[in-house]
Design goal:
Blueprint lengths: L7 H18 L11 H24 L1 H30 L2 H15 L3 H8 L16 H22 L4 H17 L6 H6 L5 H16 L9 H15 L12 H13 L10 H8 L1 H17 L6 H26 L5 H20 L9 H12 L9 E2 L20 E5 L1 H4 L2 H8 L5 E6 L16 H15 L3 E5 L7
Helix pairs in contact: 1-2, 1-12, 1-13, 2-3, 2-6, 2-9, 2-11, 3-4, 3-6, 3-13, 3-14, 3-15, 4-15, 5-6, 7-9, 9-11, 10-11, 13-14
């Protein structure tokens, strides 16, 4: 029963995964592939959950398993969301606060991965101000926790070999991923059919480790596994589809480290790695809100500010681990956790239905905010459309295209040029803005998460053809589009 023994190597591997993700999100150089830390987390989860499911579910039942997972994940998540909702009450506009409440609800109910697959892209700049974007991975894991015990029970009832059955499902999931059966980059990135193989890889490592006696030389696999992970962190980039063939490197690397089962490792068993590993979940919860808060207050991501941002993230994570995660995960706290979860969910629903608690602002203040939004350089909802708006929304945009126009056409990366253009040229340049979130200026492009994008581009192209403006500047975050 390996799951009962605390594995120093796995805890240290968590540290590698966390540090990769945190440094990547803070924009630290030479960690362009740091997002693979999440893939490593999935392998670890698959290994641990397979051990628990195979050894315990038959004896204590599925409900006990779900309660244990609830107590492990929910308390720290709920407190993080609760504090963010309090923060938002005093610092966010009604639209921003309403958006936060919707994101919080999707996180609490563990469908944020599905929600973001429809409404946003993880690598797109429009997601930079979503305080809870990172919770998508928790939703994937929770969905895995729901389905996995049931799957194993069915396999056992049918008397199919567990290892072989999981291998077949892994192969199917990997094939779906590599063949891009689900279609969009967002679906492949966020949804469980294309992430299950990573967790099942960890599951097969568990089965192999308990069924077969590992030779002594297998311990050397740890070094090779760590090298694979580090190389992936350094050389991979967030361009194109993910997971892809390149995801095999971190998944194989993590599997090799776990299979090596080296408990006296210089890399994973040292005190720093063990401390980081223990608080990794709480740090993961807090590091992204810290980053978004820095962007919200226009704090420059200089070396010194990044350093302090990382320190604050780890400090908040350590506090959360000691006061919340390590305290409220006990079974006797179940009723309290259910009440806290329900209350926080009710709060988020209230904020959503009251449109960001709009009554907290006077009518005069709301008019001022609307005026400032209308007159902001990128003019959101008017000349920079959100994913729910079609071409007709440009009718509110005062920019009329003529033969003398300087047209700015593209997604949020085009819109972000507006402050600079306005600052440099003022009214001397006849700028016509035609920008829309998640919509690059590519004729004929169909996007499931941006249903009006094709029509917007077709109509803008017609405008340009009819008016023949002097200059057309096209800009977008090109690498994330096919």
């Amino acid at each position: 029963m390996i799951y009962k023994k605390f594995r120093l190597d796995i805890n240290g591997l968590r540290a590698f995964a966390l540090i990769s993700v945190v440094l990547y999100h803070f924009g630290v150089p030479y960690v362009s592939g740091g997002f693979i830390g999440v893939d490593v987390f999935f392998v670890i989860s698959g290994f641990l959950m397979t051990g628990i499911v195979l050894e315990r579910v038959d004896h204590k039942g599925v409900l006990d398993f779900y309660i244990a997972r609830f107590l492990r994940i929910v308390p720290a998540l709920v407190f993080a969301i609760l504090l963010l909702m309090i923060f938002g009450l005093f610092t966010l506009s009604t639209n921003e606060y309403e958006a936060l409440s919707k994101n919080a609800i999707s996180s609490l109910l563990f469908y944020s991965n599905n929600y973001y697959a429809i409404h946003s892209s993880y690598f797109d700049s429009s997601s930079e101000f979503n305080f809870l974007l990172h919770t998508w991975s928790l939703s994937v894991e929770w969905q895995f926790y729901i389905l996995y015990p049931l799957l194993v029970i069915i396999v056992k009832k049918l008397r199919f070999p567990v290892g072989l059955s999981l291998s077949v499902i892994l192969a199917m999931s990997l094939a779906i991923t590599l063949m891009r059966v689900t279609g969009t980059k967002e679906d492949i990135f966020y949804l469980i059919p294309t992430r299950a193989w990573e967790m099942l890889a960890g599951g097969l490592v568990y089965i192999a480790s308990v069924r077969y006696k590992m030779p002594e030389w297998i311990k050397h696999c740890e070094v090779y596994g760590i090298v694979l992970i580090v190389v992936a962190v350094v050389i991979l980039h967030s361009n194109g589809y993910w997971p892809s063939y390149s995801a095999l490197a971190p998944v194989l690397g993590a599997s090799m480290v776990i299979l090596a089962n080296k408990q006296n490792s210089l890399f994973t068993s040292n005190r720093i790695a063990q401390w980081v590993g223990k608080i990794s979940y709480s740090v993961y919860l807090w590091h992204w809100p810290v980053i978004v808060a820095m962007k919200h207050y226009d704090i420059e991501f200089s070396a010194i500010n990044i350093f302090f941002g990382v320190i604050v993230s780890f400090a908040l994570g350590d506090i959360s681990y000691r006061t919340i995660e390590n305290t409220l995960r006990k079974r006797v706290k179940l009723q309290f956790n259910i009440v806290l979860f329900s209350s926080t969910l009710a709060l988020c629903l209230f904020v959503m239905f009251t449109k960001g608690v709009s009554f907290r602002f006077s009518d005069t203040l709301k008019q001022v905010v609307e005026y400032r939004m209308d007159n902001s350089p990128w003019r959101p909802d008017i000349c920079f459309l959100n994913p729910d708006q079609d071409y007709s929304a440009f009718s509110k945009c005062q920019d009329k295209m003529t033969e003398k126009s300087f047209v700015v056409w593209g997604d949020s990366h085009a819109a972000h040029l507006m402050p600079g253009l306005k600052s440099v040229f003022g009214n001397s340049l006849n700028i016509t803005q035609r920008t829309a979130s998640l919509c690059p200026p590519i004729i004929g492009l169909q996007k499931d998460d941006r249903p009006y994008c094709k029509d917007i581009n077709d109509m803008v192209a017609k405008e340009i053809s009819d008016n023949k403006p002097t200059t057309v500047l096209m800009s977008a975050l090109w690498p994330v589009y096919p």
